[in-house]
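Obj.: predict assembly geometry.
Materials: sequence records (below).
Method: joint structure prediction, all chains together.
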Amino acid sequence: MANGTIAISEKSFFEEGTTKQASGILSWLLSTDHKRIGIMYLFAIAIFFFTGAILGVLMRLELIAPGRTIMDAQTYNTIFTLHGVIMIFLFIVPGIPAVFGNFFLPLQLGAKDVAFPRLNLLSFWIYLVGAILVLISLFVKGGPIDTGWTFYMPYSVRTTTNVSLAIFAAFVLGFSSILTGLNFVTTVHRLRAPGMTFFKMPLFVWSTYATAWIQIIATPVIGITILLVMLERYFGVGIFDPALGGDPILFQHMFWIYSHPAVYIMILPAMGVVSEIIPTFARRTIFGYRAIAMSSLAIAFIGYLVWAHHMFTSGMSDTAAIIFSFLTFLVALPSAIKVFNWVATLYKGSIDPQPPFLWVMNFIFLFTIGGLTGLVLGTLVTNIHVHDTYFVVAHFHYVMFGGTGTIFFAALYYWFPKMSGKMYNLKLAKINAALFFIAFNTLYFPKFILGYMGMPRRYYDYLPEFADLQLISTIGSWIMLLTIILIFYNFVSAMINGKKAEANPWGGVTLEWHIPSPPPLENFDEIPTVTHEPYDFSQLKTMKYIPKGESYE
Amino acid sequence: MSNHAVNIAHKHRDDIGARMGMWLFLFTELLLFGGLFLIYAVYRHEYIAQFRVAAMELNTTIGALNTIILLTSSLTVALSIAALQKGNRMLSILLLIMTNILAFAFMINKYFEWSSKIHHGIYPGSEHLLNLPNGQILFYGLYYIMTGLHGLHVIIGLVFLTTVLAFIITGSVNKDNYVKLENAGLYWHLVDLIWIFLFPLFYLIQ
Amino acid sequence: MQEKHSHENHNISYSKYLLVWVSLIAFTSITVTIAGIDLGDYTLAIALTIAAIKSALVINIFMHIKFEDPIFKVFLSISGFTLIVIFTLTFFDYFYR
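Observations (raw structure tokens):
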């Protein structure tokens, strides 16, 4: 991708920070270095992911048998709400952009940092404040929120639980997301290395760019919506209150105008990571580069046209329902373009099944199931049968956890050696990928059947005929917990006493593989000049770093 | 190697990038108010007659006066940037102070307008308002939220402008480096833009 | 990098700003006057058209969009277009309910 020599600095960003005075933990918390900020996000997000996962396991434990098992109904309500709020607002939305976007966007562009490094640090702090507010809302008067992560009106005004604070936390988190988004858009426009035209950018950059636009344009809408919920609770303005003439369905519109595009904030960066991993492990340039790049923008755009497919049974007009159902099918086109191009890239590639690649295979399988069942939900007639059932729960876990969650791990396996300079246990990582596949399908596949049979989501109790499948699902949650613990173990032990990683362990060619692992503070001693296409593997011959034991003709 | 930390602080300056960031932020503000305008549109569509009745109570003169004040403050801030560009620092400072005074005048007007409404018992949740038809309750709900949020932005803009004013006085914002003033100006114009739409939607319904 | 933060085409004369301000005030008085006349359904349309003209003046001249890099105009149209999409699709519900 680049000509000339890049980056010869003896010290990595671990040893050398941007702050001159501060040292120790403060040199991290006050650092404006995009790499350190990315790693801090990684730690915070890993903790919240684990918390959310534990809450999920508790829910599954309660549902192991009909009737009360370990908690009462109100506790169950708060736990599924918290599971949703934590997983959505604290894990999946910021996950890939905040961790890997921060770390790798400047590296892949050939830049020394993002456009506004101090704003970047501020976003991180705002994220932390939002997260702390979520935690505080659990313990103050009123008790933890029990509305579900959707905060639907009018219940969110009537309930006595602590909605206002939790909602304010979501507002603050949204602010962090907006600032990250505008930072990334500016970075992509202003800080590309010489020669890096838009169509020479790696696909992860493209998808992060599209995501950043959604963050900027969609997030304010949820911001104002949840502010209105707070005002409603304090002053009784009546905007969404049917007793005063307000329309609760309008709240649903406003909520989904953000929250549907937010689904693409969650999945688009994951698709970008897939487009990085597949060429690297197939040793082949990506098939249909421009189609994949453009489909990211197309997904971001179409994402705005489909929000009301969450509301088919809400009582909105039939005309709107038909239009939104039709528009929903359009999303399938750019998504399919991506999947076909990935598969076409694999065709006749010399595939090297390393852990990141295996995780991507998990993704393609799970995401395809998630995507296809989305068509069932997008069709009006079938939607009415399965609306608000476990079918929906299964669908979005296949898309979000099977899609974005899987790729979060894939990205970690792919880039961990670059970020930390250490290599994890490859064998354990491969076993983990297989275990994850089993755990995931045991946990979530029964939910499709349960939903089809009529089991409603969010219910505390259920009829005896659902008991067998609920039990299978709960057993799946235990295997999943084991898998997650093993993943954590693998990375933590690699950090403590892992082997030193090579600069380019997988034979990647995008710019981040041209510099040492871990990268030095300023990334590149000299800003590279880009001459190659992003996935041109012929440059491996002339690269400074190529993996040991490999020769390229 | 220890001077790396210093190097990063002295990175090249990118004024276009700084303005780009500001504009992107303004889009978020635009969409924030856009959401409110959407709600307004829906309820005006549903309660058109009651919106007309409720709007009779609003004082068009005060609204028009505030429009003129904001438009003038937009002019002074634009002139202030031009003055600094031409190297006329004193004029720039003077115009910025004028902008601040006009912003204050706007808020004072707003204060009297709101307090007279509240004095008449018209505020969210008030007994008088709750006895009115639903459309009027929503009109006043939206009136308070939208002008209130706009007022909040006036205050933020004031803080922003005053900070930049201090920078001009200390000299860190000057003829060759004035992107901060430009960005404060952009923010201030946005406040004006929102008001350009709020004014006819609330004060000019017949 | 020097050319990146020069502003040669940014310098607008004071009189041009004043002219814009005068037209803004003029449009304000027009919109207030028209609001006094009963034009039925057209009242809102006229008021919004005038507001749109006023904001175009502010955005183009006061906010310098006319003189900025073309990408800024693209950005502005993205956000404007998004607003239009959101309004249109929401009203498919409310017009046909």
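Conclusions so far: Confidence is low (pLDDT under 50) at residues 1-10 of chain B.
To do: check interface contacts against the pulldown list.
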